[in-house]
Amino acid sequence: METWMRFLSNDDRIVFGKVEDGYLHEHLSLEHPVPTGAVLPVSALKALAPCAPRKVVALWNNFHALAAKLEKPVPAHPLFLIKPAESVIGAAEPILRPAHYAGKIAYEGELGIVIGKRCRDASVDEAAESIFGYTIVNDVTAAELLNENPHFPQWCRAKGFDTFCCIGPAIATDFDWRSARVVTTLDGVERQNYPLSDMVFTPAEQVSMISQDMTLEPGDVIACGTSLGVGSIKDGGSVSITIDGIGTLTNRLTAAGDTARQAVPAAASAV
Amino acid sequence: METWMRFLSNDDRIVFGKVEDGYLHEHLSLEHPVPTGAVLPVSALKALAPCAPRKVVALWNNFHALAAKLEKPVPAHPLFLIKPAESVIGAAEPILRPAHYAGKIAYEGELGIVIGKRCRDASVDEAAESIFGYTIVNDVTAAELLNENPHFPQWCRAKGFDTFCCIGPAIATDFDWRSARVVTTLDGVERQNYPLSDMVFTPAEQVSMISQDMTLEPGDVIACGTSLGVGSIKDGGSVSITIDGIGTLTNRLTAAGDTARQAVPAAASAV
């Protein structure tokens, strides 16, 4: 198993590569994972989300245990919403409470699939080949907005705020999801502990079926949905999600005004 | 009023600028509209969507006439879904029927707001300043997928397919939306003809309120929602949407296999 991460160097360059024994072995990109020859000590770098998705496709109702609790049938096709690129933050970055929202904010510990190759109308086998690796996602939700309007469930709004898609700390390749569990702690207390083998659609099935709905690009992330144990985070509270083999993703919820908003390097803008 | 367009040159370069009397006066970008000095005859260029949004925010229920017909109250905050960047095509490009979907495909003629400056938690005045200009959007929908699953309305899936967000042909600045109408024809027959003054949230209000939900980036598009007269397009059918002062956006629905999928230049990919 290999561990891939993405960092900001102290000369403000974004670097991506394989991490071994405290050193980053830089590679050109996730799409072109060719070594550049550069080797950098991780201690001198600031961790970012391990990829820069153009979009995050987030699933609802993809675990049998949660479907049973909600008394909903499992779906025939993945049910999803889109979280925008601007919602993505990395491990240890703060989740920021929206300035105009005082309600409950929920955590959801999830497995994340990271796409490695452009993928469109892919078979399950082709889809499996297009997966670069796996990461951890905290699919944060402004819970009270979801059904605020009785005529239109606001999935994209409730889950799309800046900083509401925590991804990290790393991407693991050759990861055996069938034997792994997602363990979420809130302020040190375990709240979620569920097996990934309970998923309705396997990762390759998700990628295949979603690639029939839209082209998936290198770096895009599919958040596989959550299971039992979702709850809300108090301001100042800290959520840690651990998947053995990938690592632990920790983020703290910060109320507006408690911290200056972090400056994030702008993505390349096209005309 | 100025007209801005984006093209592919015959040496495969993306060029953006102001169009006057059949010539493109190239500018650096939408975010930095500084003349490069180059002047190119439009006849030698292939038109693209006039901007390359990272995301398209598409509103539902933003016209009083449609709300009345649907017997829904007008909302207190814009209700929206996100269409991914991969769904965007320009004028004259084909809308492609998804390979695994044989159902109804609907057109929706809409005004599009094009963001010019990064915009977050903006007041209505700041929001007005962040608008670069206005374009036309055909917010295409795989209508039968929307409520296919009774437990989860699939807005992002039904409206997110590749080629399901037609944008163009141009961006008009200093456009007086209050006096303009959206006129949609299907195979030459008028189907929509509604005044933009009937909008629930004005463009600046939309940008302000949505900027409280997520950061809007230069080139992002808000599709302002549609009004009465939505209908479905037969394979081979052609939809033209005209807004005086912006132009006419025409796209034809093409069944799979009728045409090779157009190669679209990949956006810059970040690691």
Specify the CATH homologous superfamily of the largest domain in chain A: Fumarylacetoacetase-like, C-terminal domain
**Number of separate domains of chain A:** 2
Question: Whole-Å distance between the termini of chain A?
Answer: 39 Å
- The gyration radius over C-alpha positions of chain A equals 18 Å
Mass-distribution shape of chain A? globular
CATH architecture of the largest domain in chain A: Alpha-Beta Complex
| DSSP helical segment count of chain A | 5
What is the fold-level CATH name, i.e. the topology of the largest domain in chain A?
Answer: Fumarylacetoacetate hydrolase, domain 2
- Overall structural class of chain A, as computed from helix and strand content, comes to mainly beta
The quaternary state of the protein chains shown equals homodimer
The poorly predicted ranges of chain A are 259-271
**Number of E strands of chain A:** 20
Give the largest interface: A-B, 58 and 58 residues
Order of helices and strands of chain A: EEEEEEHEEEEEHEEHHEEEHEEEE
Helix % of chain A is 10-25%
How does the major sheet of chain A shape up? 12 strands, mixed
- What percent strand of chain A? 35-45%
Average of pLDDT of chain A: 94
